[in-house]
Write a structure and sequence with these properties.
Elements lengths: L8 H33 L3 H12 L9 H6 L1 E5 L8 H7 L1 H9 L5 H23 L6 H6 L1 E5 L3 H7 L14
Antiparallel strand pairs: 1-2
Amino acid sequence: MATINPMNRKLLLTGPIYRARRSRLIAKSIDIGLVTLGAVFYYPMGLILGVIYLCVADSLYDGQSIGKRFMGFGVVSLIDGSPCSAWQSFIRNLPFTLPLGFLVFPFWGWFIAGVFALPLAAMEVYFLFRGDTAHRLGDIMADTTVIANDGTRLDLRKSKGSWFDTPPVPLQ
């Protein structure tokens, strides 16, 4: 008599989890691409405005930057489940805004930005793809998480009590 091996559920989820992580990377690339366009065509003012945008990007549109809005994600606070605040957006985007801020200063600023940007970007991608929770460095620093933009987000935003006491949303 043959035995049937139980299904490996973790292996079953690896494909969708990998695609979600890749989509988050694409969303951040869209935001940084917008900053790059502004910096290339309107240097230095475009770069300064781009860095300011990145500082508050995740607090716009109820926790969605332009890239996250395009890809269907949103940022919520792990403290109370509310959309990302401007301060949390500033903290969670420091690994990107810190090196970009140095680019305003010619030559030495570019060198310092390169020295900081490469290791910080590598750490961001490492935490995103190698961690079990898919939290990048900025999420860990700001105590936030990225969730899919679906009906459950409305319940998270409107909840005044504990974040874990929200009733399930019926499927439509």
